[in-house]
Amino acid sequence: MRRSNTQSLSEVIRDYVKGTSIEKKLKEVDVVQSWEDLLGKTIAHYTKSVSLKGKVLFVEINSSVVKNELFMMREEIRRKLNEKAGEEMVEKIIFK
What predicted TM-score, i.e. pTM, was given to this entire model? Predict the structure, then answer.
């Protein structure tokens, strides 16, 4: 006999994640990991590190030319990252 209040495992996990602060951390990790997906392997090759602290994305680039190009595109990059996350996760991008 099956109970009427059964849920799939994915629903239970989704409800648990929403009920805790893990959801925000998972979205932060997703934003950092989506850097290569959005900008491609060439830019990722010049990227030393990407980290999100609060709503500020810190990106360390080892090429001044690439850093300058990304600086000019930072608002578009910010918009795409937030679009992928589904909410305003990044307010500012700082290139080092």
Answer: 0.74
Amino acid symbol at 67: K
What type of residue sits at position 83?
A: E
Distances (CA, A) of 75 to 1, 17, 21, 58: 56, 30, 28, 14
Instruction: Please state, as a whole number, how many other Cβ atoms lie within 10 Å of the Cβ of residue 36.
Output: 15
Q: 86 to each of 47, 52, 54, how far by Cα in Å?
A: 24, 16, 16
Q: What is the pLDDT at residue 37? A: 86
Assign a CATH topology to domain 24-95. GMP Synthetase; Chain A, domain 3 (3.30.300)
Residues 65 and 21: their CA atoms lie apart, in Å, by 38
Domain ranges in the chain are: 24-95
| 15 contact partners, CB below 8 Å, separation of at least 6 | 7
